[in-house]
């Protein structure tokens, strides 16, 4: 046990700060360290922890029941890209005019998109509201592979 004045003097001589680590202990436990560097490392750890906590957003892709095959493939590609980024995708199919008489055409288009992205997504919700059909795809949680673990170490 070192008196407070002596501890402050030692810290000053060595160019460190005297930081109280455990105030509830009797006597209080203190440590000699560079407080600026300590704070910097703490904020760095917090940022790294936040990076792992990614919140998936809900992105919307709009479709039509009479969409051409090439356009549909482009929409599928966009949907897959959004899902791989970790976002949920809401497929919104809108009917115009008399198209609403044939909802099976709309479901056929949505089914094609869902089947094309079934290895990376699951259908979580489908809603039929007025002139729209909405289908929500959620990304399948990806397991960390061994390859990414070895890359991080090197």
Q: If you had to describe this structure to a student in words, what would you say it looks like?
A:
- Helix 3 (69-84) links the parallel strand 3 (58-63) and strand 4 (88-94).
- This protein folds into two domains: 4-52, Roll (Ubiquitin-like (UB roll)), CATH 3.10.20.80; 58-139, Translation Initiation Factor IF3, CATH 3.30.110.10.
- It is α+β, with helices and mostly antiparallel strands and 154 residues long.
- Helix content is 44%, strand content 27%.
- The model has no long low-confidence stretch (mean pLDDT 86).
Q: Got a strand count?
A: 6
Please work out how many helical segments DSSP would assign.
5
Q: Give the CATH H-level superfamily of the largest domain.
A: Translation initiation factor 3 (IF-3), C-terminal domain
Mean pLDDT: 86
Helix content: 40-55%
What is Rg? 29 Å
Tell me the span between the first and last alpha carbons.
43 Å
Reported for the largest beta sheet, the result is: 4 strands, mixed
